[in-house]
Amino acid sequence: MSSRSDPVEEAAPEDRDLYDIATWEERTSLDGLSVAVYWLITRLTKFLVLFTALLILLTILASFGFGLVFDPVVAGLVALSAIPAFGLAAYVYVSDVTTSEPLSLLVATFLLSVLTATFAAVLNSLTQPFFQPLGYLGLVLFFFLIVGPVEETVKLLAVRLYAYTDERFDAVIDGAVYGAIAGLGFVVIENFVYIAGNIDIDELRLGASALGAGDGIAAIRALAGPGHVVYSAFAGYYLGLAKFNPDHRGPIIVKGLLIAAAIHALYNSLVGPATTAISSLTGLPLVPALFVFVLGFQGFFGYLLLVKIWRYREAYLSTRPESVDPSTERSDVDEPN
Q1: pTM (2 d.p.)
Q2: What does 77-138 look like in DSSP terms, one character per residue?
Q3: How far apart are the C-alpha atoms of 128 and 310, rounded to whole Å?
């Protein structure tokens, strides 16, 4: 919001009433109705977004069978696949040197990310056929023009819909925390869809060999998980920066999304060729070669994310009175608004 005033407001005496001339506040019944209608429109818009996302999610789950949602084997494999992403998200959370984020906002962001991820699933599926005739070049374009921007946007939307508007989102670094949680939610639903669509659950229950195959798929999916946390934590950090720099909110949010989408698309574009190259050069099997690539790529950008978080921490501590121990300011109590 700009701090500039209308010329009339700037020149008029402080005691002059400029209501409905150059300033505005709620006074009349019509004003009150306008406020109420605006409130209703914004809430209905959020409701429609979430309702649509829920319908898509239910449709996806129904295509696999709702029983899989509660199947202990699937739940175990999904949990296994999400462990690295959870660990990284937890580290981002504890790195927040300001007040701890309330559990209600963390859980809400996680659940909203599970919902908004469905938009990415639909858009990716609808647009991918247009890029397939171009071969690998089309795949790269698909990653940079669709997958990266869309998936990072829907994850950031999960933060923007609720946590961002809460007064407890009171520091730039909070954006990275909620962004990381949104990435974790995306990982869980994406891995569930992948595991449910690629594993025969009946075979998994037959013997150790089938279960080993399931564990292998879960382990491979686990390699992609931390990346989603890193990407959306970057975007979330800039969302937090935008909240406290409202005059430049739009460009700041776009910058965060561009960074996140570019890293995301670069990973998707390189993971196949780089894994093959590493395997050919070192003689490693494809899975260990994939691990080497993921460790190097995600480790590098994860380090850059942590550097940004550490810089914020250093700046925060340098502005605090020496007598204040920042650890005493953290609180895990979920305080009401």
Answers
A1: 0.86
A2: HHHHHHHHHHHHHHHHHHT--SSPPPHHHHHHHHHHHHHHHHHHHHHHHHHHHHHGGGHHHH
A3: 38
